[in-house]
Amino acid sequence: MTNADEAALLFVNEAFYLAFQTHDMRAMDALWSDHHPVQCIHPGWPPLFGREAVMESWLRILSNRAAPTVTFSHPVANPLGEFGLVTCYERVADNSLVATNMFHRSGREWRIIHHQSSPAPEPDEREAPRAPRQRLQ
Amino acid sequence: MTNADEAALLFVNEAFYLAFQTHDMRAMDALWSDHHPVQCIHPGWPPLFGREAVMESWLRILSNRAAPTVTFSHPVANPLGEFGLVTCYERVADNSLVATNMFHRSGREWRIIHHQSSPAPEPDEREAPRAPRQRLQ
Predict the structure, then answer these.
(1) Selection from B39, B35, B59 nearest residue B49 by Cα
(2) B interface toward A at CB cutoff 8 Å?
(3) Which residues in chain A are closer than 8 Å to B130, comparing Cβ atoms?
């Protein structure tokens, strides 16, 4: 069950970055929850609350065809029942960032509730990514 | 119910910053969940996973008596059943930051699962803080 949740969380996290990379506003919109209030903190932006403000920000970001592509790496899923967190590194041009994405499961679908991305040191390539559960031992 | 949850989330969020401000490692330790895997992203740090790594980081931070005091403002609670988010501004010396704190309710107690703090523009003082729910309307 938990392994399935981890896999589902990693999958929807990947879908989020795919929508981001392909400037797919429709997919991005569909990925965000319309059940719970959503919130989003882009690097250096004030926090945005509510679907309208958050979608407006994504439209602005995804409309910018000149923007450098974002890639992600080192995702770590933290399943919490009907909710779940995925923390991963992001790379935008030469900048290393770390993001937390929070998801809610509605039926069989996971939808985003919260995204926060902020500057981070380069990921430590010597260390393989491990799930939080394993790190607790 | 939701108003009570909002109040409880704002209260525990304040307790977190009180522990931070008073360098109270014992209170900080008690505030973090020992039920769910925890994770923490300090500004400019790599993400930390698991209680051991997270508490080690707080011990290091709270042991530094010369560190400037952190204050918080503009908290916005987002209750999500047994979970909840509080997003607020932080101020450390001249730096404006924005933090997301995620809590889990265990019995009547709310405990922290996730903290991420990152650089932000100054809060807009013209705008009163409002709950995400209200912003959705």
Answers:
(1) B39
(2) 36-39, 41, 43-47, 49-53, 76, 78, 80-83, 85, 87, 98, 100, 102, 104, 113-114, 116-121, 123-124, 130-133, 135-136
(3) 49
**Taking the CA of residue B74 as centre, how many other CA atoms within 13 Å lie in the half-sphere pointing to its CB?**
24
Rounded CA separation B66/A30 (Å)? 47
Q: Which domains does chain A have, with CATH numbers?
A: 2-121+128-135 (3.10.450.50)
Which of B48, B56, B80 to substitute to test the interface with A, most A CBs within 10 Å?
Answer: B80
ipTM: 0.90
- Quick: pLDDT tens for A24-65: 999 999 999 999 999 999 999 999 999 999 999 999 999 998
Residues 6 or more apart in contact with residue B126 via CB below 8 angstroms: none
Distance between CA atoms of A23 and A63, rounded to whole angstroms?
7
Look up the pTM and report it. Answer: 0.91
The structure tokens 């031992």 sit at: A137
Residues of B in contact with A124 (CB under 8 A): 46
